[in-house]
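I hope you will forgive my troubling you with a question about protein structure. You will find the record immediately after this paragraph.
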Amino acid sequence: MALPSSKSLGSRFNDSLDDVVHAFSGKDHYFKLQAGLVAAWIAVSVATLGAVAWTGGPVDKLGADVRAEMAVGGPVLLVTNNSSSRWTDITYTLNESYVFRQAVLEPGDHKAIPVGRFRKGGSGGRRAPRDLEPKALAISCEQGQTHLALSRVKP
């Protein structure tokens, strides 16, 4: 069994740090420049990761994730229920004008909705144009509601 060292952890750390500083001071200019670049890269990486973790992404209370994708027949909205509860009696409102209704969306499930399926003025109303650019989607159901801005669909 080893006996504990008479030096404290702090003094051993200081001795090690002094050894590192002494070894570094003996290196040439190019080594110091490379070490500085690596240290700067690490600092920027840590700051970036910290900023992303701190700010996070846009969060809605309903737990919805919506992506607009371009398909052969025109834009399609991919709606995902990321919450732990099922959505019931769902109304999707596209660009504050066109409506699509769905009875249920289970937790973790998704629904692909072509823009052409949205209607203005109820179920017998006029269909949304196939070339309509989705800009915003409001989701309303018995569990809550959210309004999400959509990024531009790339052709």
